[in-house]
Automatic annotation (TrEMBL):
Pfam families in alphabetical order: Furin-like_2
Alphabetized PANTHER family for the sequence: NEUROHYPOPHYSIAL HORMONES, N-TERMINAL DOMAIN CONTAINING PROTEIN, R-SPONDIN-4
This protein's record includes keyword Secreted: yes
Record-given protein name: RSPO2 protein
Name of the gene encoding the protein in the UniProt record: Rspo2_0
Family named by the database record: Belongs to the R-spondin family.
Keywords: Disulfide bond, Glycoprotein, Heparin-binding, Secreted, Sensory transduction, Signal, Wnt signaling pathway
Gene3D superfamilies: Hormone Receptor, Insulin-like Growth Factor Receptor 1, Chain A, domain 2, Thrombospondin type-1 (TSP1) repeat
Domain R-spondin Fu-CRD: 18-113
Keyword Disulfide bond among UniProt keywords: yes
Length: 194
């Protein structure tokens, strides 16, 4: 059995999903777009549907051609948005952007800052963990938090950007009983030790 697709051109009554197309298929959506728009092919399993868009969605970049402008998928799986097939401009969560690449950790001579790696910054040593506290109390609670920090220093003499300070926090188990059976603040704890 032969199945024919319906092709619609600009002068015909257009279905809603063909409004921005120069050429459209009833089954597959846009086949050709106006000069300034990009053809984006959405794929769901075996089906595909074309749309004409002004800018390509996340995970894709625009390629201009003589006959058609297309949205092409970024090649790097860790990349959320790219400028070209292998030059990323925003990484997925958990990765840092450095010179167009998405890395799980920043290379030597750089320091992580938000989602980027900053050049010319070098990390120092981690400080000791702070005491385990819960709302300023050192005891009387089951769980608290403690933190530590790492200072990042600029290696070069010319400062183009300030280097970040890294810190991390973790959950910790606290002493359950306070001296005297009451909840005490950190100040009170130091008085009991003296």
């Amino acid at each position: 059995m032969l199945t024919l697709s319906l092709f619609v051109s600009v002068g015909s009554d257009l279905p809603d999903d063909c409004k921005s197309c120069l050429e459209c298929s009833g089954d597959n959506g846009c086949l050709k777009c106006p000069e300034k728009l990009f053809l984006f092919i959405q794929r769901e399993g075996m089906r595909q549907h074309g749309l004409c868009v002004q800018s390509c969605p996340l995970g894709h970049y625009g390629v201009r051609g003589q006959d058609i402008n297309r949205c092409t998928k970024c090649k790097t799986p860790d990349c959320e948005n790219c400028f070209s097939k292998d030059f990323c401009i925003r990484c997925k969560a958990g990765f840092h952007l450095f010179k167009g690449k998405c890395l799980s950790s920043c290379p030597d001579g750089t320091a992580p800052h938000l989602a980027d790696c900053i050049e010319g910054c070098e990390s120092g040593q981690w400080s000791e963990w702070t005491a385990c506290t819960n709302n300023g109390h050192l005891c009387g609670h089951r769980w608290g938090t403690q933190s530590r920090s790492k200072e990042i220093v600029r290696k070069e003499t010319v400062e183009t950007a300030s280097c970040p300070v890294l810190s991390e926090t973790k959950r910790c188990r606290m002493k359950k009983r306070c001296p005297g059976g009451k909840k005490c603040s950190c100040k009170d704890m130091f008085q009991y030790r003296m």
